[in-house]
Amino acid sequence: MAGFRALAEQVRDPYRDPSQRRQALRKCLERFAPYGHRATWQHLCARAGIRPDDREPDPELLVAALDELEEARSVWLAYESEVASRRRAEKRDGIRQPAPHDEWHRLTWGGRSLLPCDPATPPTPRLADVLRRMITAMDEDVGTDVIRLATRGFRSGLGAMAASRG
Q1: pLDDT tens track of the chain, all 166 residues?
Q2: Cβ contact 79:72 at 8 Å
Q3: Positive or negative torsion for Cα 144, 40, 73, 1
Q4: Which of 32, 105, 129, 145 could cysteine-pair with 111, CB 3.0–4.6 Å?
């Protein structure tokens, strides 16, 4: 099973058939899909100008969608690195239980369904911008129900989204 970077190379490979490149982009969403698979796919298609059901889209549009996804993924990986570093420091200091705001990170480990939303109406801003806002909200709104707090803050600015994960 290929990882995200190998799949991204396949999307950019000019010698691959456009349908194979599209499939590689869809498989990238199995590794990183901030809104969930379907909603993230709809978002990327809308932003890049791809018809979601087009089996052989323009390769340049696929690369544009991949660029947006990679930018968002780099934001998420930086956040995960910061969390890991902070947790190591806390453990060195004898703090073994994660803080309440770490619950959101635990529930969204791996970067899938970070902010579940309706596939028909995913947020319109760039994925990286949405993730930066979400991370800021997580850092500011510490509490027992951080997901509800975070999504409440984004409902008005980003469109219809799930009120909570559970």
Answers
A1: 689 999 999 999 999 999 999 999 999 999 999 988 999 999 999 999 999 999 999 999 999 999 999 999 999 999 989 988 988 999 999 988 887 777 777 777 667 777 778 888 878 899 999 889 888 877 776 444 444 444 444 443 344 333 333 3
A2: no
A3: positive
A4: 32
